[in-house]
Design goal:
heterotrimer; B: MetI-like fold; globular; C: alpha+beta; Rossmann fold; OB fold (Dihydrolipoamide Acetyltransferase, E2P); 2 domains; 8 helices; about 35% strand; elongated; membrane (chain A); transmembrane (chain A); Ornithine carbamoyltransferase (chain A); MetI-like (chain A)
């Protein structure tokens, strides 16, 4: 790597990580003020763990994320299969449009329009409506990830299974699905994280009693910098980092073995 | 060759299920939004008139349509605030996209040129912030940018400034936030294209006497174009409607449509106007979306 | 080559007028072909000639637009792949990457109603067949290319198909391994008595393996027969060139009929054996005389052609020379190393001869 590239990467990654680092460091700051270092302390984590409403909203978020990511994983896989396997079916253009548009659509539009639907059909707003909303925009992401894997899949592996007497369903469950499993897991994880992260859409479609973690954090953030939020952020960042770095480590190890082919 | 001998029954369900779901929860809501943007606000629950009378069936829909009017759009057009917000949303998104290209291209290139072994790690390093809460990452900038924040403290300490700089709640802060939050969206598609680029191509160009900059300009950049276009649109489209960044970093003065919509909806409780803003926002991004879809389809076509 | 002739034995497989088009492209065009039980047949042709599509129609991955395919009189076309009594070995091997070797081999046996011990037994015997005992727990990505090839073969044989389809079975192997494996493949085929239909683009492989070679070009069968017949008596310039190096001398037929005919060329009349297509053609018909390089003799008594030596290449077992004739035509002559005339310098005049039965007259 040239010096220029090295500097570019250092600066770029530094830019990406500096704010995160600030959060993490100041979550251990005993002082309430950002600019004052009051010494190392874990007191904000204590405050965090005794913050009942915050923990409750974290639980809501986890529930919503788990449910919506599961639905998105199923819908996204079906959509990816349709795009990869069904050739030029009627309405393919509309199908891809519907699938990918939610990924780039500004969240305020998605959130508002979904709320208007729920109000229109008189559906009580709460966890189910957030789950539906998140599953809808998670589907496209899952479809992209699973679709990429499908594209790289050697079709003759499935043909071989059929050739060896496996019915289409058996081919799907014994060959296709196991081969898709890593991408399915990645897609699920992405949908899960996106759901966990969403503030805007959830704010529109949630109802009383269904306050997600980002909604709770937002209401506190608006009041200014708060060490307790730093602590919460640190915990979130730590868990995400472990998952992402673990996954990429796994994929590196896997690539290492398949490189022998 | 497409294996078309296997056609199990029920195959159509594979595309019907996601299609129905997405139509119901993405397309239909849109149609409703467009309709409500033609309604009049009311102090009722829901706060707009007319309401579709479902019990009346088709008649209910007809009444609904007859009562529609253009008042909301006339209001938008008459209010210079919305014009300014439209222009400034586009300006913010366009400027930030250009900055992102300028930062993202060298970063992606550096990643693609790194050794095979560290590339997955670099990708993971770019992805981790993207997986980390958007809200939290933007929130972190408040602590850095505010007058008594870290940036000013540092600059004051080294004597570079005498007075704390006003950065938070200015357009500059919004710009920093946009650039920061969308950088991975620019870097990753660019990297995806550049890492697949045959490394012997720039070498061949260099071998034929092209200078470093000429190699980049004539070989690397044209070949990386699909990634650049994808990245630019992937950033531009959501940035036009961005809410969190202008809300947290831009202060109450910031004019961006996403924020206006939010305020109309949550603060003013004017659902019809909020819907009209949503439609306006949608019109602004339809162009780029169409371009994006066209490019994607062309790419798919090329891969076929 | 004592292949059971498809004419005397009842055919195992009958392909009758099969056609398949992809859009405007006619991949397989009215192909008819019979295959006898126990026969080893090679479909040979350049890429895109339709041989793989034909194979995929037999396996059930493509449906013919027209024609019939029957195995032992049973119609195959209506059957989905998993119900067909034929098996296929894929070019990419298509081993299940998430299953061990043993699981790969057992995959086709499950669903046959065999009990577990019977399946284990069968897997073991397959491993013995392809000499992979002890590899049952390996994943495909931990095997060498040759080992993977053998797993793929064993897996395709697991269900004891009457007919095994092999798509470029040796294509991914390097040269030495390929030659070794050709022998093994033949030995296994002879032992099991299964009919093999191999698709290949490699003429040497087709000649080494097959009882009968079927040459395809642009979706049609252009010639079928044992390797030797195709090599020595090709039906067209295409087949002649496909099976090996060939010199072509253009000319026109002189009057006459019979075992050999005379062709008027730029170097005077040449006597050669007419192919059926030109045996009774009128005089003045444009033809080419096909001469295999090894049939050209150097500095022989019965000089027929003279030219200048322009290149000599030593190839180990033989020497190949290029000789330019008066009109610029370059001929290649190949001589086996023992009996090579040796030191002929480049630029020297050379005289060439060949026996009348070595020349083969083909339509131009």
């Amino acid at each position: 790597m040239t010096a220029f590239n090295r500097i570019t990467l250092t600066l770029g990654l530094g830019f990406l990580y500096a704010p995160i680092l600030v959060l993490v460091v100041y979550s251990f700051n005993d002082s309430r003020l950002v600019t004052v270092w009051g010494g190392f302390s874990t007191r904000w984590y204590g405050v965090l763990l005794s913050d009942g409403p915050l923990l409750a909203s974290a639980l809501v978020s986890l529930k919503v994320a788990a449910l919506s990511a599961t639905i998105a994983a199923m819908l996204g896989t079906l959509a990816a299969l349709a795009l990869d396997r069904h050739g030029r079916f009627a309405g393919r253009g509309a199908f891809t449009g519907l699938l990918y548009a939610p990924m780039v659509m500004p969240e305020v539009i998605t959130g508002l329009s979904l709320l208007l639907l729920f109000v229109g059909i008189d559906m009580e707003r709460g966890i189910p409506t957030i789950v539906i909303a998140h599953a809808t925009f998670g589907t496209g992401f899952v479809a992209v990830i699973v679709g990429a894997r499908l594209k790289g899949l050697d079709r003759s592996i499935e043909e071989a299974a059929a050739d060896l007497g496996a019915s289409p369903l058996r081919v799907f469950f014994t060959v296709t699905l196991p081969l898709l499993a890593p991408s399915l897991a990645a897609g699920f994880l992405l949908a899960f994280t996106l759901s966990l992260d969403d503030l805007v859409i959830a704010s529109f479609v949630s109802g009383p009693g269904a306050t997600t973690l980002p909604m709770r954090l937002y209401s506190q953030v608006r009041l200014g910098v708060n060490p307790e939020i730093n602590a919460a952020s640190t915990l979130l960042i730590a868990s995400v980092s472990v998952v992402v770095l673990g996954a990429s480590w796994l994929s590196v190890r896997k690539n290492g073995t398949t490189a022998a082919q | 060759m497409s294996g078309n001998a296997v056609r199990p029954s029920g195959r159509w369900l594979v595309r019907a299920v996601p299609f129905v779901w997405l139509s119901l929860f993405f397309l239909v809501p849109f149609v409703i939004t467009v309709k409500i943007s033609f309604s009049t606000p009311a102090t009722a629950q829901p706060p707009y008139l007319p309401v579709i009378d479902w019990s009346n069936g088709l008649e209910g829909w007809r009444e609904f349509f007859y009562a529609l009017d253009l008042t909301n759009y006339q209001m938008l057009a008459a209010d210079s605030l919305y014009w300014e917000a439209t222009v400034s949303s586009l300006a913010y998104a366009a400027t930030a996209t250009v900055i992102l290209i300028l930062i993202g291209t060298p970063m992606a290139l550096a990643m693609a040129r790194a050794s095979e072994r560290v590339q997955p790690l670099l990708v993971a390093l770019v992805v981790v912030p993207f997986w980390t809460s958007f809200l939290i990452r933007i929130y972190a900038w408040i602590a850095i940018l505010k007058p008594e924040g870290l940036l000013n403290a540092g600059l004051l300490k080294f004597g570079l400034i005498a007075q704390p700089l006003e950065i938070l709640n200015t357009p500059l802060a919004v710009m920093i936030g946009l650039t920061y939050a969308y950088l991975p969206f620019m870097v990753l598609p660019l990297y995806a294209v550049m890492s697949r680029l045959d490394s012997s191509l720039p070498e061949a160009a260099a071998d034929l006497g092209a200078s470093r900059t000429r190699v980049f300009r004539t070989v690397t950049l044209p070949l990386a174009m699909p990634g650049l276009v994808a990245g630019a649109l992937l950033c531009f489209i959501p940035m036009v409607g961005e809410f969190i960044i202008p809300d947290l970093l831009g202060g109450s003065e910031t004019l961006m449509l996403g924020r206006m919509l939010w305020i109309e909806f949550f603060s003013n409780r004017d659902w019809p106007i909020a819907s009209a803003v949503a439609v306006l926002l949608l019109i602004l991004i339809v162009g780029p979306v169409v371009i994006f879809r066209g490019a994607e389809e062309k790419r798919e076509e090329a891969l076929r | 080559m004592q292949a059971p002739s498809p004419l005397t034995a009842a055919p195992l497989l009958r392909i009758d007028g099969v056609t398949k088009t992809f859009g405007a492209h006619r991949a397989v065009d009215a192909v008819s072909l019979d295959l006898a039980a126990g026969e080893f047949l090679c479909l040979l042709g350049p890429s895109g000639c339709g041989k793989s599509t034909l194979l995929r129609m037999l396996a059930g991955f493509e449906t013919p637009d027209a024609g019939a395919i029957t195995l032992h009189g049973q119609d195959l076309i209506g059957l989905p792949p998993h119900q067909r009594p034929v098996n296929m070995m894929f070019q990419s091997y298509a081993l299940f990457p998430h299953m061990s070797v043993a699981k790969n081999l057992a995959y086709g046996l499950q669903g046959l109603g065999l009990d577990r011990s019977r399946i284990t037994e069968r897997v073991q015997s397959l491993l013995r067949l392809v000499k992979l005992e002890g590899f049952e727990d390996r994943r495909p990505d931990k095997l060498s290319g040759g080992q993977r090839q053998r797993v793929a073969l064993a897996r395709a044989l697991a269900r004891e198909p009457r007919l095994l389809l092999l798509d470029e079975p040796l294509g991914a192997l390097d040269r030495t391994l390929r030659e070794e494996t050709q022998g093994e493949l033949r030995a296994i085929q002879r032992r099991l008595g299964t009919s093999f239909m191999v698709v290949t683009h490699d003429p040497e492989e087709a000649m080494a393996l097959a009882d009968r070679i079927v040459v395809m070009d642009r979706g049609r069968i252009v010639q079928a027969g044992p390797a030797r017949e195709l090599y020595e008596r090709p039906a067209s310039r295409f087949v002649a060139g496909l099976l090996g190096d060939v010199n072509l001398i253009a000319g026109t037929l002189e009057p006459g009929e019979g075992e050999s005919r005379s062709v008027c060329t730029a170097f005077g009349p040449l006597r050669a054996v007419p192919s059926p297509a030109v045996a009774s053609a009128a005089s003045e018909t444009s033809v080419v005389v096909a001469l295999r390089p090894e049939r050209l003799r150097l500095g022989d008594g019965d000089t027929i052609l003279t030219g200048t030596l322009v290149d000599v290449a030593f190839l180990g077992d033989r020497v190949r020379r290029q000789i330019r004739l008066a009109d610029g035509t370059v001929l290649r002559a190949s001589t086996a190393l023992p009996g090579d005339p040796g030191d002929l310098g480049i630029g020297q005049p050379v005289s060439l001869g060949f026996a009348p039965e070595a020349g083969w007259i083909l339509p131009a």
